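Reader question, answered in our methods column.
A reader sent in the components of a multi-part assembly and asked whether the whole thing could be modeled at once rather than chain by chain. We filled in our standard form and ran it. Here is what they sent:
COMPLEX SIZE: two components
ENTRIES:
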Amino acid sequence: MRVLIVDDSSVMRKIVTRGLRQAGFKIDEILEAGDGQQAMEVLGQEQVDLILSDWNMPNMDGLTFVKEARKSIQTPIVMVTTEGGEGKVQEAINSGANGHIKKPFTPETLKGTLGKYFG
Amino acid sequence: MTGIRDKSLRSALITGLDASVQDILATMAWTSVSFEGREVVPDLLLSDGVAGLVRMQGDHEGMVAISTDKPVGMELVSRIIGLPADDLNTEDLLDGVGELANMICGGMKAKAGIGGVQLSSPVAIVGREYSALWKTHLKTEILSYALDKRLFRVHACF
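And here is the structure of the entire assembly that came back:
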């Protein structure tokens, strides 16, 4: 299983990585991107099985990234955000996102939301 | 700029802020803090070793900040990342403090159940000697927490 974490905060990428490991998911490799634009570049060169993306990022935000990614790939994309605004969540899902995780999250939260993608 | 004059909304935000601090530190930093008290001061003035600020804009305006000394800041960031404090670089500390402020404010907004407010990206400050002042007529309510006998403060200016 290869996971791409998209977040402009290096700390948040580490927090998500730690959460995934603590949740006990079997992960072969974690790839990282600092914004949607970088994520598109990664996806042009690498195949991943799951994408976790922040909302607010410079250059290309999470919502635009979802729309761009859906033009070429169908890899599951789960949004990670601080605010649980239903409008934003629904807009992302309408644009092709598969789910949503709200910070703060626990390993149990991650298991519950992401378990289905890890088989 | 107008702050939040509605007493019940202010109360909901402060209650939400307090709950958010406890929730975020317990869930993400695996630590608990004890509430030490609250005070109202004329200015939003920060001078601890590390600080994170988030601006509120929209139907209600203001600023929320967190501040603490550098050792506590490093300990908290170390806990939320899962790396020893000695392994943290300056970018980690800045990012971590900003992310803490971001999560605490987001939690406050969600717990208070307010709409029509946008939160800015966080601003983080790490320094040996600084004073940061937000010039506004709004008063600031400071919530103080103890973490291993050291203070972690949350400044609510709205």
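What stands out: The mean pLDDT of chain B is 92. DSSP finds three helices and nine strands in chain B.
Send us your own complexes using the same form.
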